[in-house]
Each structure stands twice: as structure tokens, then as C-alpha cells.
């Protein structure tokens, strides 16, 4: 079968590899769609890769059951499925509580998953432990693939911020691209908060307003004063930063209110500076900083429920698997709106 493999650090190629066979407890999916994410670019550009190579990329995966391994029940050939992002051990304290995304078998590290330690979905087929599958139901088998990350990750980011989000709250969403545009929808669908979208791209800001943002601010030197002005100088209750660059992380620290929360999702190497001294030095009193990862299987089911109800969706561009390298190049150039999905 065809598979986009990271064959060595900073080099990927579309290769022919053997078809996977289901081990006991596994299901093989015929891939119907694999989302392309900035995390794939991080993997591609890393000088040192922590996972064994070669590795098939792709962590946003939808497919139909092609083969079922020994001991698997509840899955029949032809059934549609989505693959959960985080493959926890299923036995530790975190996993037993449902938080596979923070599995103790991988202490203080990234919990592996498809394309992130295990063979991913940018291929014709993928083998998946059955416990990491979620039924697709009547969702589109291509367009639904990004819900496993572009839907799940912002949903979880909102979930871990929810104690600070009420109908009187203001939430700033920095970066309304692949993940941020879903965060706007999740906030609109599940909270009564005032949602302010922040981005450098005017087209993305217009889209964010169409998706439910109450205000849209172009990211520049006037953004912090504007956010403070919108809140009477108090600052915003929650900042969801889906960029994580130095400038956006600094902005988050400059505009969060006392008792608020900065939720850092983006991975663009920004540093949140904090000096342990009374305000106005450092962060305001009572501020929490959270670094969420992925989400739980329960949260993925809730994302799918919102999608089926028409409350959230991911803007999707479809491309053939054979164009995978070109799509990654377009993503790096900022030429993809929403999510690109590779179709075998």
C-alpha cells in the first residue's frame, strides 16, 4: 500500500509498504480521510525525532473497517470509525479516569498515537487497537477526519478553561485557523461568553465572525489596548492561544485579568515570562496557566455529537494522498484554509 513516511529527520516520502495485518485486539481500517496538521510539519522539520523511524505520518484519521483481529467484538467489516488521538495504556490512574491524553505510562511526555509514535493514517490502511476507535455514524467519512484533533483539541482546551467561562466572561481566541476556528464554534455552542477572535489574517477574522465571534481584532500593537478597552481595563477571563508564538504568548500575559486563565495550545516556541513579584510585575494575581493536550475519548464523542447537530464543523480542503508532500508545502506557506484532508 502507499504511505507517507518520515524516513529520516527532515525527509518524508510517499512509499510502498506492506499492508498491515490486525494483531489480536486490533482493527485494520481502510482510510477514508487523513487530516494534515501543523504538528505534521513539526514532525517533518524536527532535527531529532523521538519516535522510531520510518514512521507513517497522520494523526487525524477516519476510515472503514477492513479487517478485525482476534478478540475484537463490536466492530464489523464496513463500519465507519474515527481514531482517537491519544493511545494511553488503559491501566494507569489517568487512563482509568478516562484521561488517556495524560497517560502515566508516558510520564511528562507526549502520549503516542497514530502518526506520533505509531503508524499513522496518511496511507491506504492503518491498524488500530480497537479501544481507540469511536463510531463514525452518519458523519462524512472524509470531512470528519479532522474532528479527531482540530475538533477535539480546541474542545478540550475550552473544557479545561470552563471554570472561568460564564455568560459574563470574555474569551480571547488567538489564532483562528485550523484549531482556533473550531474553538470559536465550541464557545458559541456551549457557553454564553463574549468571544473575541484575534488573528493576523483578515479573511480568517471575517470567517470567525461568521462562525459566531462577537468581535474580531487584527493582531498588531493595538490588540492589547483594544482587548483591555473591551473589558473596561480588567482584562479577559480566558485567553486561548492556538499559535503559541512569542508575540501571542506575550499578548496573552498582557491581557489576562486577575483570576483568569491562559490556555496555551499552540506550539510555536513562545515563552510566557513571569517574575515572582507583586503586580504589575509579572502576571496578575490568581492567574492560572494551562498547557492542554489532545482530549479524552468522551470529549471526542461530545465533539461528534456537536458536529451531528450542526453546531460545529471544520472547513475542509480535499486532496489525493498522492499530493501529500505538496499539501504539506502549501500548509507551511499558509495557503490552506481550515484543514486539508488527504483521500487515498
Automatic annotation (TrEMBL):
What is the enzyme's main class? oxidoreductase
Signal peptide location: none
Q: Catalyzes what?
A: a primary alcohol + NAD(+) = an aldehyde + NADH + H(+); a secondary alcohol + NAD(+) = a ketone + NADH + H(+)
Q: Which SUPFAM superfamilies is this protein grouped with?
A: GroES-like, NAD(P)-binding Rossmann-fold domains
The EC designation for this entry is: 1.1.1.1
Taxonomy, superkingdom: Bacteria
User: Keywords in UniProt for this one?
Assistant: Metal-binding, Oxidoreductase, Zinc
Q: Which InterPro entries match?
A: ADH-like_C (IPR013149), ADH-like_N (IPR013154), ADH_Zn_CS (IPR002328), ER (IPR020843), GroES-like_sf (IPR011032), NAD(P)-bd_dom_sf (IPR036291)
Q: Which intervals hold domain Enoyl reductase (ER)?
A: 2-342
Cofactors (names): Zn(2+)
Question: Where, if anywhere, are coiled coils annotated?
Answer: none
Which Pfam families does the annotation name?
A: ADH_N, ADH_zinc_N
Q: Which GO terms describe its molecular function?
A: alcohol dehydrogenase (NAD+) activity; zinc ion binding
Please give the PANTHER family that the UniProt record associates with this protein: ALCOHOL DEHYDROGENASE 1-RELATED, VACUOLAR PROTEIN SORTING-ASSOCIATED PROTEIN 11
Q: Which family does it belong to?
A: Belongs to the zinc-containing alcohol dehydrogenase family.
Record-given protein name: alcohol dehydrogenase
Amino acid at each position: 500500500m502507499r504511505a507517507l513516511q518520515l524516513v529520516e529527520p527532515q525527509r518524508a516520502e510517499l512509499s510502498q509498504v506492506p499492508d498491515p495485518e490486525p494483531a489480536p485486539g486490533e482493527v485494520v481500517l481502510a482510510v477514508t480521510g487523513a487530516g494534515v496538521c501543523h504538528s505534521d510539519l513539526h514532525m517533518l522539520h524536527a532535527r531529532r525525532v523521538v519516535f522510531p523511524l520510518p514512521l507513517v505520518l497522520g494523526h487525524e484519521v477516519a476510515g472503514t473497517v477492513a479487517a478485525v483481529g482476534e478478540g475484537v467484538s463490536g466492530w464489523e467489516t464496513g463500519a465507519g470509525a474515527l481514531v482517537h488521538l491519544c493511545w494511553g495504556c488503559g491501566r494507569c490512574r489517568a487512563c482509568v479516569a478516562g484521561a488517556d491524553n495524560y497517560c502515566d505510562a508516558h510520564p511528562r511526555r507526549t502520549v503516542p498515537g497514530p502518526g506520533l509514535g505509531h503508524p499513522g493514517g496518511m496511507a491506504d490502511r492503518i491498524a488500530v487497537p480497537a479501544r481507540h476507535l469511536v463510531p463514525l455514524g452518519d458523519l462524512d467519512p472524509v470531512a470528519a477526519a479532522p474532528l479527531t484533533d482540530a475538533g477535539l483539541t480546541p474542545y478540550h482546551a475550552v473544557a479545561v478553561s470552563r471554570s472561568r467561562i460564564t455568560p459574563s466572561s470574555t474569551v480571547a481566541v488567538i489564532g483562528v485557523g485550523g484549531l482556533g476556528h473550531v474553538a470559536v464554534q465550541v464557545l458559541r455552542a456551549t457557553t454564553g461568553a463574549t468571544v473575541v477572535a484575534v488573528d493576523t489574517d483578515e479573511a480568517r477574522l471575517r470567517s470567525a465572525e461568521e462562525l459566531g465571534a462577537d468581535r474580531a481584532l487584527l493582531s498588531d500593537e493595538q490588540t492589547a489596548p483594544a482587548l483591555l478597552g473591551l473589558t473596561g481595563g480588567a482584562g479577559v477571563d480566558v485567553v486561548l492561544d492556538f499559535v503559541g508564538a512569542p508575540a501571542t504568548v506575550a499578548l496573552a500575559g498582557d491581557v489576562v485579568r486577575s483570576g483568569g486563565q491562559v490556555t496555551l495550545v499552540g506550539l510555536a516556541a513562545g515563552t510566557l515570562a513571569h517574575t515572582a513579584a507583586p503586580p504589575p510585575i509579572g502576571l496578575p494575581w490568581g492567574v492560572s496557566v494551562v498547557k492542554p493536550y489532545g482530549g479524552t475519548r468522551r470529549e471526542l464523542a461530545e465533539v461528534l455529537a456537536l458536529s451531528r447537530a450542526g453546531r460545529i464543523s471544520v472547513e475542509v480542503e480535499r486532496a489525493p494522498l498522492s499530493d501529500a508532500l505538496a499539501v504539506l508545502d502549501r500548509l507551511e506557506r499558509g495557503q490552506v484554509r481550515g484543514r486539508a484532508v488527504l483521500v487515498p
